[in-house]
UniProtKB/TrEMBL annotation, chains A, B:
The name this protein goes by in its record: Chorismate mutase
Listed Gene3D superfamilies: Chorismate mutase, AroQ class superfamily, eukaryotic (1.10.590.10)
Domain Chorismate mutase span(s) in chain numbering: 130-247
EC number annotated for this UniProt entry: 5.4.99.5
The entry's keywords: Amino-acid biosynthesis, Aromatic amino acid biosynthesis, Cytoplasm, Isomerase
UniProt source species: Triticum aestivum
Amino acid sequence: MDAGGGEQLSLAAVRDQLIREEDSIVFALIERAKRPRNTPAYSAAAAGGSLAEFFVREAQVLHAKAGHYQKPEDVPFFSQDLPPPVFPTKGHPKVLHPFASSVCVNDAIWKMYFNELLPLFTADGDDGNYAETVALDFACLQALSRRIHCGKYVAEVKFKDAPQDYSPPIRAKDTNALMNLLTFTAVEEKVKKRVEKKARIFGQNVTLEDSVGKQDGDACDSHCKVDPKVLSKLYDLWVMPLTKDVEVEYLLRHLD
Amino acid sequence: MDAGGGEQLSLAAVRDQLIREEDSIVFALIERAKRPRNTPAYSAAAAGGSLAEFFVREAQVLHAKAGHYQKPEDVPFFSQDLPPPVFPTKGHPKVLHPFASSVCVNDAIWKMYFNELLPLFTADGDDGNYAETVALDFACLQALSRRIHCGKYVAEVKFKDAPQDYSPPIRAKDTNALMNLLTFTAVEEKVKKRVEKKARIFGQNVTLEDSVGKQDGDACDSHCKVDPKVLSKLYDLWVMPLTKDVEVEYLLRHLD
């Protein structure tokens, strides 16, 4: 999250960021869908872990050396033994509570991605392009994780806007009451519709012939590179609930 | 390039692959455009090279360990001392001449990307997100390099279709004649129009409000995440000429 020069967070700025992250998620899924399932990339090899796990671990070491994982929304999947940056980094404005960086639901994202999501948007098959496949998986995981952990900013903004509403359930550690305060069904329905529409627009086969295009309607969904319904399902079942888990976890420690 | 089970290459299959690579290039540029120029990522640091160079070198080491760079279109930017794969890899059908893997224009792609292209589609500024920035650069470089080195398949198919046309200039090492044989201005114009259209469609801000959308027309170009004209310029000045350089270099050694 970039607070835009100042240190003030606004709900509008956070929402803009979340909307932009949707594009990244849709792009990443479309790119991964170029390749079939490629299950050998996920089976444990001689060394113990799978190629996918090896790749994500090593990629995170490299990203850490380059200076990544300094912001509260950038949380590694494997946080043990990450090296410090080897190049100078620039500080980011601290707009969240210091414990924000320890709020992490990556274990749930990892399981969801490999066990639930991947079979929904990749074709059965094995084309042998395992290295490319796991690099594309890493891009999906990163985009999902960043979007979901942006929930920390959502929670901070919502708390700041109405501390009188949030403080009592935080003190009572009332998770259900917090979850209710954080749930806006009408907004969630809009988000689901929008990501579905993005998948339809970004996943179409663009040709010079159709000048008006296939922006709407389900007629083209079978030609989309990722089924648009998978995107609304992803947001409905996992992205928005996990974001709210992040929000609740963040809020519960807000008065510590 | 995936020959699709068989070992036969067809011009149609190669063209489909090239068209799909266009989407990857457009997505990668749109993602990079999230961040401003961030020039400190490109200045030499104490260690000698820049963060960008460090990142690409190290990322390629990781990708090589994962089994990448086995196919003729996947050519590393820094090929010295790349480690062998540490996980089992699956062989790919050999449809090109063995020397194909040594045909490489990555030095020219590197210079073009950092010196010419980057200033055209990123905003002035420094937001401090250097690690993210160079990771996005690496994705752009990889997508461009793969697209351009797919020229090896284009050349192979064209040679197979008309060896009688290509053999004399190959024997005479007549680069100009080969370049003429490989140039189809009408096709190139279509490609430029198509990538421009893709940038317009994939780079728009999708909202639920506009149901018809802004698939065509220049009215929205200022709102596109990457100026669509940059894409047609990229293809006109660099992607298509460099692809033809790859084709010529491949063909020149075809009768060795």
